[in-house]
Every structure is written in structure tokens, then in C-alpha cells.
Amino acid sequence: MSTLFAPENLESEQLANRCTPDDLDEVFGQEKLLGKKGPLLQLIESDSVPSAVFYGPPGCGKTALAKIIAKRTNSAFIRLNAVTAKTDDLRKALKRAQENRLLGNKTILFIDEIHRFNKMVQDGLLPALEEGVVTLIGTTTKNPFFYLIPPLRSRVLLFEFEQLSTDALKIILEKAVAREGFKIDEEAREFITRCSSGDARRMLNLLQAALGLGKPGLITIEDVEGVIGKQPLLYDRDEDYHYDVISAFIKSVRGSDPDAALYWLALMLESGEDLLYIARRLVILASEDIGLADSSALVLAVSAYEAVDMVGMPEARLILAHATLRLTLATKSNSSYRAISKATAFVKERGNLEVPDYLKSAHPAKKNYLYPHDYKYHYVQQQYLKERVFFYEPGGLGDEKEMKRRLEFLRKLSQEEKNVEQTGPEDARSEDTG
Predict the structure, then answer these.
(1) Which of 53, 259, 300, 398 could be stapled to 138 by a disulfide with Cβ–Cβ 3.0 to 4.6 Å?
(2) Which contacts (CB < 8 Å, 24+ apart) does range 114-120 have?
(3) Per-residue pLDDT tens for 242-277?
(4) Topology given in CATH for the domain delimited by 240-328
(5) Could you tell me the pTM of the whole model?
């Protein structure tokens, strides 16, 4: 076994760095971009790679490919990291690129985590891109449509990298094992690729750590479990993945898939997500997606929120699972969401409508107000707006079936009362209390 794997050398000698691919045939898992008809492959082979931003999850090969492009296109490679680079560093890099250009040489300016540059620094890149001083390749794990300024986006091509598949990770693992000359048992192979969350760098770092736990040159499932058990899941509440996971969770509940909903819930719980954040989203969902089809869902969701706040972990996971399953399998309706959206749009378009005189709290016409409880069915046809509008369209499922029947009945009564003279109240009118 190479002495590089001696425990005292683990920090200074990174397996992930040594296994970085040197050419395109060593890059795996990005077939859409680098396959036979992949757009990026064709640009590289024709030596016409434009300024670009590679965006996608960590450990999927963005940085490695940028280096390969520089090598294949005989370009100088200047690397900056937007986390640590200052404006002066960028200025010096562009000056070097200009000098290279005067000598007839091309330059690739590689900026890692480019989304960390503020608007002013991103603006500073524009003249160099306009003049062709450099070919910019930026990488980011963020969505460039949210984090890059429009003028910069218009001057680059955006290439989305996918999370590496388990098959791609296995190929990378096999090449690392062959290159470094150690052994790994089959159980450990399966486990480490499955737990690497599509991140090749993470997998190789875990491999290196596992080598320090067991027999020299041999990695077993016990070694891998010893390392994996101490690692946090790939989940950061400050990153886009946080929003993607909660989105997948809510959509699974809305889509009535209990198993998917439980998976995303478990992932959030194991990753340390804010319990009340999850509970709040369930409260919102209870009205937005279940609504009037089962009004008890809102009561349950609010109770779950209060219980989670009261109890905390680990028991809170039971409460959240209870609420999640109940809401997932509840009858769904978004009629209240659609109704308030229509009403809001109407208000924005039409503004304030005048209140009818007989509905005002203090007006001589108040005596003309018809008190519904004095009439049959506790209903009387009466205008509550000066024009007729229809916002609410009841669904036909769950409790809302009865609401739909009731609304249709009342509308029928209204139509009948328009055609005949009102017969008046069944009993003596009560005093107006409006």
C-alpha cells in the first residue's frame, strides 16, 4: 500500500485530488453534455468553447472539466475562488489575461463559486468578456438565474451538471481503487456509493478516511460505516437543496404519496431541519391543498404545530409523521386558494367598490337591510355588492360536496325570488342588530 495512506498523511494527501480526471475519457456521469452528441463536447472538440457557467451539485466534475478544457484548448488557466478573492485579485487576473492576449495566447479565467461575487464585482467582468480578453468559466452550486446579474448571464452559456449516478460513482471508485492499489469489499463499495449523495469528492474523501480505520490497504463495510456514521447528510438549510427538499415534501403530500412524503420528512429530520418550519408548511398546506374538502385537516395541522413546539425531538418526529400521513391521505381541494386568488385579482383591478347604503353601519337606509334569519332557510336574496361576482367554485369531493349542494340551492332560491314577489318573513321580523 502507498505510504500516502498512512494516517499521518491523510490530511496533506487528498485522494480526491490525485484522482481528478486529466482528460475527457475520464469524466463520467455527464452524458447529456459530454456524450457523443453533447453540446459541450462538440464545443470542446472544435476549440470554440465560449464563456460559460457550470452549475450543479458539488462533486459532479465542474472544476475538473474546466481544467480539461484549458488543457485541450492550450489556454492559460487562472483560478480564483469568489469566497476569498478580492477585487484586486480579479484585476490582476485580467491584467495577466491581457498580457497573454498580446502574446497571442488564450486564457481561461476560472472562478469557483462565482455566485459569491457581489453585483459590483460581476459588473467588473463584463468589459473583459466583451473584448474577448478571457474565456470565463464559472462554477456554482446555485441557480444562476437567481444569483448572477442579467448582463453577465447574457454573455455566457449556462450548462447544468447533474448529480452523479450510482453507476458513475462506481466507475470512479473502481478507477481510484486500481490507481491507488488498495482493496475494498463488495458491501463497502455498495454502501459508500449509496451514501455519497452523488458527490464523487465526498466519496473519495470517505474512502481515504476509511483507509485509516481498518487493516492496511483494505476497506471493509465496518470501516465505511465507522466513517459514514459520523458524517452529516448532504443537506444545508442555507443552500438551495433545503428549498428543493421542502418543495418535494409538500408536493408529495399534495400528491397523496405517503411513502415519498415520509422519505423527505425523514431526510429533513435526520439533517436537523427546523421542526417548526416543517410544521408551519403543513399548516399552510392544510388550507391550500385540502381546504374545504376536509376542514378538520387545518385543526390537526395547527395541533401538530403546537405539539411539536411543546415536545421537541425525538418524539416530535412521531407527531410530524402523524400529521404528514393524515394530510397526505386526506381528500384534496384547492377551491379556497383559487377563490381568494380571484378575489385578490379583482380587487387589484377594480379597486374599492362602494358599500351599499343598507349595509353600512350607520346610514338611514339601514332599515332596508333584510335580516336572513327572519326568512325561510335563514336566507333571503339580497345584494351585498353593487355588482354580481363569482369567485368561489366548490369542488365535488369530501365535505365540500355538501357545500356545493348548499350553494347551488341558495343560487336557485335567488333566481326564484327574482321572478316572484317576496312573501316576507315567516315570523315577525326581529330588531335589526347589524
Answers:
(1) 53
(2) 114/53, 114/82, 114/138, 114/139, 114/140, 114/148, 115/82, 115/140, 115/141, 115/142, 115/144, 115/147, 115/148, 116/82, 116/83, 117/82, 117/85, 119/149
(3) 778 888 999 999 998 999 999 999 988 887 788 888
(4) Zinc Finger, Delta Prime; domain 3 (1.20.272)
(5) 0.58
